Amino acid sequence: MWNRISKHHLFWPLMVLAALLLFNLIYKPAFFSIRIQGGHLYGSLIDILNYGAPLILVAIGMTLVIATGGIDLSVGSIVAISGAVACLLVSKSADQNSLGIVLTAVAVSLGLAIVCGLWNGVLVAGVGMQAIIATLILMVAGRGIAQLVTSGQIITVSSNPYEYIGAGWLALLPFSIFIVAAVWLAAAWLTRRTALGLFIESVGSNATASRLAGIRSRSVIFAVYIFCGLCAGMAGLILSSNVSSADGNNAGLWYELDAILAVVIGGTSLNGGRFYLSGTVVGALIIQTLTTTIYMIGVPPEITLVVKAFVVFAVCLVQSEKFRNVLTSKWRKRRYQAEREVTHHV
Amino acid sequence: MFKRQYLPILVTVGLFVLVFLAGSFRYTGFFSLQVLTNLLIDNAFLLIVAVGMTFVIVSGGIDLSVGSMVALTTMLSATLVEQQGWPPSVVIPLVLAFGCLYGFGMGAIIHYFNIQPFIVTLAGMFLARGLCYIISINTITINDSFYKDMAMTKIQLPGGSFVSISVIIALAVVLLALYLAHYTRFGRNTYAIGGSEQSALLMGLPVARTKMLVYAFSGFCSALGGVVFTFYMLSGYGLHAVGLELDAIAAVVIGGTLLTGGVGYVAGTFFGVLILGVIQTIINFEGTLSSWWTKIVIGVLLFLFIILQRVINVRASKMKVI
């Protein structure tokens, strides 16, 4: 029984999250208090969900891309572009509070995010580039485009409907949590209740073999990059609406790294072929909780980077089969020298 | 006589000449030796870092930690020299050794635990950047006379132009790298591993040692780049050289090195860095263009060069079939 629990893919991520929360409980019991004020729920846990929302969104898109054996470095730039475009359209309009204008702005920037995703898809599936390089192009150029849109300035907007996306409340909870929940459920339904998830994993294991087996590998790869772009676009809207401004330089900076980290912590292998959406969500929550914890205990926030570095190392080492073999080799039967030599370098 | 494999590097050189000539026709005062030497002066640290990156990419890996390693080097040098009062003659060898060791450690983790270089060097990047902030979150200015001398000394060239000592160091690194890549076993092994690690292993080449040495060399180059950057900025700061890893990768790719490994030239990287520099110079000369155009142009160039590589590769493989 214990063996089955500890082998479950969510076991280690959840243990880490639990350990972090336990630390907070001991350090500051008020961490878990949630109070109702003006019909809204307030508390550190709600904050973690609210501020973690953009990261979770980006990480969900990234999970599917990584599942096909690719990677998308451009999400941070797409976050910046979509926030910049939406804020520019809203700020240029006559009546910033008009719902129609905000909806148009949202539609346009999500459309642009899809175009960005499509561009990545064309380069990876159409031209056949390595994913790291293909998306590196948009990562470099995209940040320039975002700065071009904002003219290097910070665009501020004062629009109630636009603010609602990232800072509004629906019933008791922040609205952004509902967006995330909707995207997560949609992605989970599409990949686990239809054959799409199987296709993605199959393409990630071996794109050529999948094509020969009758799966349209290219279309699947196109679809995941577009979905990832769309997720990043939504995250950009939430981020920029939360602070009612768009910053082409710093919005979404290093988001690609955090998102990849969340995916890896969640147990999805970077080699593709397997993915765990729920693991990714837990991974993103771990990162956000870690950041909040570090702020709370009063360590300079810059230390976050060092902690993150060790988390990445630890997670990678645990996932590395070789490392586990080194640890458990004493209890295993002896291997022949030749066999060890061959398996060593594959 | 003419080998197809030299085509990307010829395109790079041609593009550099073209861009430089275009700038010369458009702006008065552009066509001078000093503009050319300024390219080297302003990009000496990038050149050194990109040379190290070339080896890593040729071996089939990638090193994302170079930018933060440069920052960490400036920070270490500044704090040791200014706050601890150590002499530069001790500090510089120390930071170079530290860079080697850091790269060697990452290489060892990549090789022995079989983790993707992307992730390991990403963690290395976080760690180095974080260590900077642990030392100090503020800028540390350097007033040491040795560093100032290194920064101020101008070496006169015939024709009235000058170069800095950093340029001499950078050119020495390029020459050393050319020798390493094309005339030593280490260089041959690196190309072999990049071509196919499995084959290199079966041929009996020292895969483990070479891979770790490649990352150690890249760590050394980024530390040396950091030292040169310290001469250039005369300060240590945790936000120095943010995004330098992307510039270095872009320079290497524009220089004709294949990101899949096994193919690439140090000389190409040299011209790749010069192209990035000349674009920056043109945007400065234009005056009305803003700095973000640099990023967009670099993105477009990256795209064009990768497409070119694909075309060459596809044609080469078709010829093999026939």
TrEMBL record, chain A:
Question: What keywords tag this UniProt record?
Answer: Cell membrane, Membrane, Sugar transport, Transmembrane, Transmembrane helix, Transport
Q: What is its main location?
A: membrane
Please give, as recorded in its UniProt entry, the membrane topology of this protein: Multi-pass membrane protein
Q: Where in the cell is it found?
A: Cell membrane
Q: Does the keyword Transport apply?
A: yes
- Source species: Paenibacillus prosopidis
- Recorded protein name is Simple sugar transport system permease protein
* PANTHER family to which the protein is assigned, alphabetical: ABC TRANSPORTER PERMEASE PROTEIN YPHD-RELATED-RELATED (PTHR32196), GALACTOFURANOSE TRANSPORTER PERMEASE PROTEIN YTFT (PTHR32196:SF19)
Q: Which GO terms describe its cellular component?
A: plasma membrane
List the Pfam families hit by this protein, alphabetically.
Answer: BPD_transp_2
InterPro entries recorded: ABC_transp_permease
Source domain of life is Bacteria
Annotated membrane-spanning segments are 12-36, 48-66, 97-119, 131-149, 169-190, 220-239, 251-268, 275-297, 303-320
Q: Which GO molecular function annotations are given, in alphabetical order?
A: transmembrane transporter activity
Automatic annotation (TrEMBL), chain B:
* Species name: Paenibacillus prosopidis
Bilayer disposition of the protein:
Multi-pass membrane protein
**Main location per UniProt?**
membrane
Q: In the UniProt record, does the keyword Oxidoreductase occur?
A: no
Segments crossing the lipid bilayer: 6-27, 39-58, 90-113, 119-141, 162-181, 212-234, 246-279, 291-312
Q: Which compartment or compartments is the protein found in?
A: Cell membrane
Q: Name one GO cellular component term.
A: plasma membrane
Q: Could you identify this protein by its name?
A: Monosaccharide ABC transporter membrane protein (CUT2 family)
Instruction: List UniProt keywords, sorted A-Z.
Output: Cell membrane, Membrane, Transmembrane, Transmembrane helix
- So which domain of life are we looking at? Bacteria
Molecular function in Gene Ontology:
transmembrane transporter activity
